[in-house]
Design a protein that fits this description.
The structure is a single chain. The chain has 5 helices and 5 strands, in the order αββααβαββα. The protein is of the alpha/beta class. It has a 5-stranded mixed sheet. Helix 1 runs parallel beside helix 5. The longest helix is centred in the last third of the chain and has 18 residues. The radius of gyration is 15 Å and the shape is globular.
Length: 148
């Protein structure tokens, strides 16, 4: 999770919402990413999606079984769908997301019994640190926004 937090800093440095993700299998990093929808002009360029894409390229396989995804913010429904399609075994996230969370906060996509794959989910890992990065980012953004 510490590596994911470092990647969240990279997103913030680029002016993106500070979310980072790292995919690990057998103790080795196989993919990583940070939020970049603005810089990539791509609404799907969330940290999780970018980590999954990098890992799939590196492993030459769209399925990533026996892997663990560490992400600083609870995945949204889009990312949860991609995680399920990739057959990620475990998802560990930091802060919950009361607006878009799909691991139980708003939606329960990741552990739904209606889908053919259910990763093990564990939230709240270094949650305060992850939440602080997000809060600081949005606080600073509000302060620098021109007043109308």
């Amino acid at each position: 999770m510490r590596r994911a937090l470092e990647l969240a800093d990279a997103a913030a440095d680029a002016g993106e919402v500070p979310v980072g993700a790292v995919l690990v299998r057998a103790g080795l990093e196989i993919g990583h990413g940070w939020n970049a929808p603005i810089g990539c002009a791509d609404p799907t360029a969330h940290a999780e999606i970018r980590a999954l894409r990098a890992a799939a390229r590196d492993c030459a396989n769209y399925r990533l079984p026996e892997s663990t995804l560490y992400v600083t913010l609870e995945p949204c429904p889009m990312c949860a769908g991609a995680i399920i399609q990739a057959r990620v075994a475990r998802v560990v996230f930091g802060a919950g997301d009361s607006r878009w969370g799909a691991a139980g906060s708003v939606f329960d996509v990741l552990t739904s019994g209606k889908l053919n794959h259910r990763p093990v989910c564990e939230g709240g890992i270094l949650a305060e640190e992850a939440a602080e990065k997000l809060q600081r980012f949005f606080r600073e953004r509000r302060q620098t926004r021109p007043q109308s």
